[in-house]
Specification:
163 residues, 4 strands, single chain, 4-stranded antiparallel β-sheet
Length: 163
């Protein structure tokens, strides 16, 4: 997929949507100082070309009873392409896994996991790691405090300027 050339208006739209994706088209257009029709066309183009992957609601883990966050390093015994892909597919299919990164120069995978409690974490470990003979090492880090959670990407300087 080819990344389009983004102009100042595109950057302003992206900046606003990263802050609040629930904005109506009318409100977004007002914030970026263009007509609603222009705004709608631009957002559609940004979606169609893959710059905007999706729009979601961010939930509070504590409010929904999923208050245990773990960062998990996984090292596999065998790193053949099909073994890596097989493990990755199983992990991606697990709803408790929020993020999965295949890494190099260290563990094979780093996961961010959100579960209800330690019992739920142990069940996840059993399902994904213990039952897999190819998993050599699991190293887990448990969050005691979330100091920052910002899924927004840093945009070039021109994005933060108003029109």
């Amino acid at each position: 997929m080819m990344t389009p050339q983004l102009d100042a208006l595109d950057w302003r739209i992206l900046d606003q949507l990263q802050t609040d994706a629930s904005l109506s088209n009318q409100a977004l257009a007002e914030r970026v100082h263009v007509s609603p029709a222009t705004c709608l066309r631009r957002v559609k183009r940004l979606v169609d070309c893959g710059v905007i992957e999706r729009r979601v609601a961010l939930l509070s883990p504590d409010a929904i009873g999923a208050g245990l966050t773990a960062v998990v390093e996984i090292t596999l015994d065998h790193q053949a392409a099909e073994r890596l892909a097989g493990f990755e597919e199983r992990v991606i299919a697990e709803p408790a896994v929020q993020q999965c990164y295949r890494t190099s120069s260290g563990p094979d995978f780093v996961l961010v996991v959100q579960v209800r409690d330690m019992d739920a974490y142990h069940a996840l470990v059993q399902r994904l790691f213990t039952s897999d003979a190819n998993v050599r090492n699991v190293k887990s880090y448990f969050s005691v405090k979330r100091s920052k959670f910002a899924p927004a990407l840093a945009l070039p300087q021109q994005a933060s300027r108003s029109a």
